[in-house]
Amino acid sequence: MSVIYCDVNLGTLNQTIYLEENGITTPISNIPTNLVDEAIAGLCYGTEVYNVKLSGPAGYLDKIIEGIKSAESTVYALNNIKIEVIE
């Protein structure tokens, strides 16, 4: 199963988003923190990988998850992305 993964670190300006496929993890984007939700939604549809794993501060991840869902419904009018928070 392919997964898009991001370990959100609030101490950095940009976040690296990774694609994990067939046991290989590859960075696919380095995006400003304030755009990470829109970027993840776009990358999901661009790569056709709808499983997302996020780690980071719980309160901030809630905002990112809300932003991903909002971007997905606004831009794509779909609800395919499945989001899992890992520790």
β-strand amount: 35-45%
Tell me the total number of β-strands: 5
What do the pLDDT scores average to? 95
Radius of gyration: 12 Å
Q: Tell me the number of helical segments per DSSP (H or I, 4 or more residues long).
A: 2
Net shape:
globular
- Main beta sheet strand tally, sense and closure: 5 strands, mixed
Strand ordering within the main sheet:
3-2-1-4-5
Helix content class: 25-40%
Please state the structural category: alpha/beta
Distance between the termini: 19 Å
In N-to-C order, the SSE pattern is EEEHEHE
The unreliable regions are none
Descriptive overview:
The protein has 87 residues and is of the alpha/beta class. 36% of the residues lie in helices and 36% in strands. The protein contains two helices and five strands; from the N terminus they run βββαβαβ. The chain has helices at residues 36-47, 58-76; strands at 3-7, 14-21, 24-32, 51-55, 82-85. The protein has a five-stranded mixed β-sheet with strand order 3-2-1-4-5, covered by helices on one side. Helix 1 (36-47) packs across helix 2 (58-76). The longest helix is centred in the last third of the chain and has 19 residues, at 58-76. The protein is globular, with a radius of gyration of 12 Å.
